[in-house]
Amino acid sequence: MIYVIAIGTFQAFTAVLLLWTNRLKSKADALLILLLLCIAAHLATKFYIYTVVSDAHIRFQMNTFIGFCYGPLLYLYALKNKDESFIPASRWYVFIPFILGAIGYLTVVCVLEFSLQAGYAALQIYNQTSTWSMLAAGTFFPLLALNVARKYLQQKPQERQLIEWISYCLLTISAVAHVFQGIHALNWVEDKDLIFCRDIVYSILLIVCFIIIRYKYVAVVPTATVHSIYSETVAGRDKQEQISAEKADLIDIREQSSPVRRTQLTTTEHREIMDKLEQHLQRTRIFTDADLNMDKLAGSVGISKYHLSEALNSYASKSFYQFINEMRIERAIQQMQFMSSKALPVNVLTLAFDCGFKAKSSFNQYFKKITGLTPTAYLRSVAEMRAETL
After folding, report:
1. What is the DSSP string of 57-88?
2. Do the beta carbons of residue 119 and residue 50 sit within 8 Å?
3. What angle, rounded to 10 degrees, do the helices at 360-371 and 348-355 form?
4. H helix and E strand count, the chain
5. What is the pLDDT of residues 167-176, one digit of tens each?
6. How far apart are CA 177 and CA 70, in angstroms?
7. Quick check: 139 and 268 in contact, CB under 8 A?
8. CA torsion sign, 226 to 231 to 236 to 238?
């Protein structure tokens, strides 16, 4: 178990550093950094207890109150992604269990310093109270976060999946703890036997750190990775499906959106629509949705699809798919430059899926059309430029 805690502590601090220095991080990511710091502090505290403290009562019974923060921080992260104007401090009361847990923890520590007998009694009360309170909070807040993600973050698939994965991990921790506590309540196991439960909990916290790094630093959605592995390893892939995906990406706007016969809006109105559209796309990154169409985008922005089509054609002089695919290629270029600067490997197929393309061939075609280079050639040029500056 010591090795799991040590690895988890190192990975949590590493994740904090990587996310903190990630130039693509959003304002909501500050809450993820706090979550990672809490995990690091939790595991570091446990590492100290298991390596330095010799008292068996403290080693096997003393809960760390920091666990009260996990669910609330995830819930606030979901709310911040739902509404960028949301101020997390306005929901300060979600940390009341954490505050009470900290008071109880420090009280037990102080009592143990003066009297072991009284300290053991206080420790037992604290441990029982904090355990069931933490289980309740560890179930309630992840469920709230899941509800927010599924209701309001359909247009942010990456953030939604991240919240879902972390919620599942926290709910798994609560489920495992409930099972072991139930067995312990029936006197089927002793306190020292609960150490296996802690092994599972610390391993899941390590997985949470890995998930955050995977989504926010490497900037690759795990489901896209699954598609990548499937696409590259399964023989005899359905060629017709790929051709259909290419046609969906390359099809002309005249066949996919309602034509605008005459200009109905002023140039100023066109510009306002385009400004609103670009801000919405940058904020939600809905352009990474491979099934995005004019109707879905118009509904997401809150603009008539006819006005949106008119602004794109008359003001931007671009078709819907041309405009969206340019946004996708711009994101791909940012990802390539960032990952190359960190000497991270880039899987072109995974990147294509992550940016919203359904097929690698259409991604390559648009990439070359916009940049003049294939993705592989572009990556090579970036690597050469980076080598020259070193």
Report:
1. HHHHH---GGGGGHHHHHHHHHHHHH-TT--G
2. no
3. 90
4. 18, 0
5. 999 999 888 8
6. 15
7. no
8. positive
